[in-house]
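explain this.
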Amino acid sequence: MNENDIAIFKRLTDLYNSADQNVKELPINTDTKYALFSDLHLGDGGNSDIFVHNENTMIVALEHYKKSGYSIILLGDVEELWQFNFIEIHYKYDKSIYELLRSFKGNRVHRIFGNHDKDWKRPPTDPILFDENIQHGAPEAIKLGNDIFLVHGHQGDKTCDRKTWESRYWARKGEPYVPIGKVFGISNRLATKSQIPGNREKLYYDWAMENKVFLICGHTHNAIFASRLYYWWLKEKIIEKETELKKCSKDKVRICELYKEIKKLNTDLHIEERMGRHYNRLSTTGKPLPCYFNTGCGHFRGGITNIEIEGDKIRLIKWHKDESLPLEQRREKLWKEESLSGLRKKLNRKTV
């Protein structure tokens, strides 16, 4: 590992072993329900706001979780404060996303800060968690029980910290040119791909494996479930559909459906490749241990990904943008849900 990798390992370890206000502890039992989101990057609603096209999708997801009794955990970079000032963001989303989050009564919304919304580290007037009695800003990490560790994912990255103000400056300087760029087919880099090094996922995985904990974060915009990347899920689904197609020789309606499904999956696969999210598998020596999870982000072209923890179950979900679909189809499980107790056995760890 290089010096920066060592610093990331150390910061994660220090946070995990910390017992101060910087780490919030939440219960997890058979009755708890958590929906985890990260990297929404809310903007001003204009051409350079990479979230706005998924605003209605997020509203549908939040309404579902509110009705179903879930608590919401926001894993950082909820607002894009490098590129926009908070007044602009608040004006655009106060009567939609923020208002809906505030309607989760009974302390059911929690947030940690990321590198793009690090301002919440200090105690400003949070539009989601407004409370005059809050003495401190958002924590840096959350623990669920004693072996589920939630962070944004930028922890300890000296390169990220050093470039924060430089990046904020250039993000705001470049914002007026985004609409012009779209005319010429040049999109917002933040919207298209994470600029995080590809080996970062492997580093997170190695830390979680070494500490025998479940690490859940965001930051890289790359949806991962039990150490399996969304890219590989797409490849597996394509193989599954192609296998079904070979066996489906007489049902013309189903054949037509399968061709459309395969075309859609291949389109999504090519997007992942173009965005630089087609990393190698996290383990080069067999099947990876199911210790690392990533919520993905809120600005995929086709919707939003997030993670659900319901009692002993954990799921990676994609909320599809297509408003013509019924709710049960808009909310799609990526891979089969897993039991935390079963995953703990694979990590050789006792249940909480």
About this structure: The chain has a mean pLDDT of 85. The radius of gyration is 20 Å. Residues 3-227+282-346 form a domain with the Purple Acid Phosphatase; chain A, domain 2 fold (CATH 3.60.21.10).
